[in-house]
Amino acid sequence: MTEMRRVTAICNGTVIDHVPAGHALKVLRMLRISGVQSSPVSLVMNVPSSKYGAKDIIKVEDRELTQDELDRLGLIAPHASVAIIRNFSVAEKREVELQDEMVNVARCTYSNCISLADREPLPHRLKVVDSEPLQLQCHYCGRSQDIDSVIENLL
Fold it and tell me: Where are the strands (E) in 62-121, listed by range?
C-alpha cells in the first residue's frame, strides 16, 4: 500500500526541515508559536528521512525567522535546514548552528544567580557544555540547565 502525505505549499513564510523526530512541539514553544496566531502553521511529525531515519517538518506562513530565532532553533535542531519562501519559491536558505554560548536567550533558573539581580544588570549567558544530549550551564553561577528549563525561561 502506498501512503501519500500532503502538506500544501505556502506563498510566503518559513519551512523548517530536518527537525529531530518528536521535537517539533519544542521548536514551536521556543519560537513562541502557540496556535492563537492568525497565520497558518503546518506540522508534520515522524516522517521518514533518508538522512536521520525520521524527522519533523514545520511550515509557518507569513513569518520569516530572525537570526535570534535561528540561534534559538540551534538549541533543539542544530542540523535543521530553514528555507524562506516568497511567492511560492525558495528565496533563501538559512543556516542553523548551535552556538558555543547563548547570550540573552534565557534566564538562569537558579534564583540566587547574580544575573537575576536588579542592582547589577548583567547579560544572561548560557554556555553549551554538551550537544548530545544538550546541556547548558550558566556563565555566572555554573548551574546546569536542560532544554525544557531554557524554553520555560526564554527572554
Answer: 81-86, 89-95, 101-103
pLDDT tens digits for the chain (155 residues)?
A: 455 556 778 999 999 999 999 999 989 988 888 777 778 888 999 999 888 899 999 999 999 988 888 888 888 888 899 999 999 999 999 888 888 888 888 888 888 888 887 767 788 899 988 877 788 899 999 999 888 888 788 77
Write out the residue limits of the CATH 3.30.70.140 domain(s) in the chain.
Answer: 13-95
Measured CA to CA in angstroms, residue 93 lies from 31, 65, 89, 107, 130 at distances of 18, 11, 11, 30, 27
What CATH class has 101-152? mainly beta
Three-state SS at 113: coil
Q: Which fold has domain 13-95?
A: Alpha-Beta Plaits (3.30.70)
| Bridge partners, residue 110, by sequence | none
Q: What is the pTM of this model?
A: 0.79
Q: Which of 102, 111, 98, 100 is nearest to 141 (CA)?
A: 111
Helix H or strand E encompassing 135? strand 134-138
